[in-house]
Amino acid sequence: MFLVNLRICVIDWSAASLWIQVDLCAEELGNNVRPAVALLGDVNSVVEQLLSALKQNMWKYPSDTEWWSMLKEKIQSNEQTTKELALQSSVPMNYYTVFHHVRELLPKDCVIVSEGANTMDIGRTMLHNYLPRHRLDAGTFGTMGVGLGFAIAAAVVAREEDPAKRVVCVEGDSAFGFSGMEVETICRYNLPIIIIVVNNNGIYSGLDKDTWKEMEKIGDLTSVAPPVSLLPEARYEQVMAAFGGRGFFVQTPAELQEALRKCLADPEKPCLINVMIDPASDRKQQDFPWLTRSNL
Asked: In terms of Cα–Cα distance, which of 194, 199, 198, 167 is closest to 271?
C-alpha cells in the first residue's frame, strides 16, 4: 500500500499488509501505521526517483501467481453472469439487457454521461469507453443532479471542436428528476444530446402500475406509498417533446434499438428515450454486502 501525506484507519486491512509512507513531515512517519518503508520528502520528487529506479530495474508482477489465477476466474465468472442477464428476453427488461442493446449501437467515440445509483454503477461495467476523457459521472461521490449539466457542457464543447461527436446521457429515473428541466436548456440551444432514462419507477426499486393501483385503494398515498417509489411509467419523454425535442417510450429490446437508431441518425435534434424496466430489477449478486448495501 502506498500512503502519501495522510492518515488512515487500517482496521479492515490484513495484518500482512505492507505500507510505504511518503510524507513531508518527519513526525508523521509511522504516526498511526507502522510503515515497511518510510520516505521523507516531497511526493513529486520521491515519485520521480522511484520511477527512475524502476526504469533501471524493470519489474512485472508474475502472471502465474495464485492471486492472478483467482482474479481471472472471478473475471470469467462475472462476465458469464452478466452475459446471462444481458441476453434475457423477458419483458419488462432488466438493467443488463438495456445496457447490452445500448452498447451494441453506441459509437465508440461518443461521450458517455452516466448518473444514478444502479444505472451508473452497472453502466460503468457495461458501457465501455474507448477514448480518454469520454466519460462523465459522479465518481465515488454519488452526487445526484449533475448528469444533464455534464451533458450540456460536453455537447457545447463537441459542437465547437468535433460536431460529429455524439453525447449520450444515461440517467436513472430518480437521477433525471433532480435536474430534468435542463431539457429546456438543451432544446433552447438545440444541443443534439441523446438522453436515455432507465425507468424502474423508483429510487433503487419501485412499484408496477397494478401494485400502485392496489395501494391507492388502501389509503392516502402520502401515507401508504413507500417514499422511494415514483409514479409508475412516468412519461419523461413527453417533457422532451414539450420543448421541441424528440421523445420515445420503449418497453422491449426491439423498441429500444429502433428508438436509439433514430436518435443516432438525427444529428440536429435533442432526443430522450424513456426505457421501462422491471421495478424489481437489481444489480447482480455481490460477494461483499457493502457493494450493494443501502440505508433506504
From this structure: 194
Exposed / middle / buried, residue 254 (Cβ in 10 Å: 0-12, 13-18, 19+): exposed
pLDDT for residue 270 is more than 60: yes
Residues 6+ apart with CB under 8 A from 259: 248, 250, 273
d(CA 52, CA 36): 21
What is the Cα–Cα distance from 9 to 165, expressed in whole angstroms? 44
Give the SS3 label for residue 110: coil
Query: pTM, whole model, 2 decimals?
Result: 0.80
Coil vs helix vs strand at 93 = strand
What are the strands of the beta sheet with 246-250, ordered from one edge? Answer: 135-137, 111-115, 167-172, 194-199, 271-276, 246-250
pLDDT in tens, 197-241: 999 999 989 999 999 999 999 999 999 999 999 999 999 999 999
* SS3 state at 277: strand
Q: Which residue has the cell 432514462?
A: 197
Please give the sequence-ordered ranges of beta strands (E in DSSP) within the chain, or none if there are none. 2-4, 20-23, 37-40, 111-115, 135-137, 167-172, 194-199, 202-203, 205-206, 246-250, 271-276
pLDDT band at 5 (very low <50, low <70, confident <90, very high): low
Q: Kindly state the cell numbers that stand for 235.
A: 412519461
Q: How far apart are CA 151 and CA 168, in angstroms?
A: 7
Q: How far apart are CA 171 and CA 87, in angstroms?
A: 21
Asked whether 272 and 183 are in contact (CB, 8 A), the reply is yes
Q: Which residue has the cell 521523507?
A: 40
Interacting residues of 291 by C-beta distance below 8 A, sequence separation 6+: none
Q: Can you read off the three cell numbers belonging to residue 10?
A: 487500517
Q: Residue 147: helix, strand or coil by DSSP?
A: helix
